[in-house]
Give the backbone structure.
Amino acid sequence: MSKAVTYLNPPSSTPPAGMYSHVALMAPGELAFIAGQVAVDRSGASVGVGDMTAQVAQVFANIGDILKDLGADFEAVVQLTTYLTGADNISTFMSARTALFPKLFPGGKYPPNTLLVIDRLVKPEFLVEVAVIARVPG
């Protein structure tokens, strides 16, 4: 797949405060708006109850499966929106993401990400949910 998205940190922007870029420029194509993914397996069973690291892995595995079904991969991701339950989960989430992102984004460029801390998700056992916008082949 040709480079669908270019991630940038323009000179006028502040340094990113983590593993993300300030801007994603995308080549023409179709946009896929992927609903927030939570830590469930293909049978619908919850994965990693009480374990942020396991849930992060499952959430991004689910996203990867959807991208593959759409004929894309993580290089097609234009933006991530991450929802975490409770500020006390931020450091564990960041550690899990730091371990995972270099595998998903081997070029070391990361899409823009908005991180929101919320009270809870649809089920109390879910600690993280990630929604994605991606550019897919059209």
In short: DSSP finds two helices and six strands in the chain. The helical segments are 52-69, 90-104. Residues 11 and 81 are 24 Å apart (CA to CA). The chain has a mean pLDDT of 93.
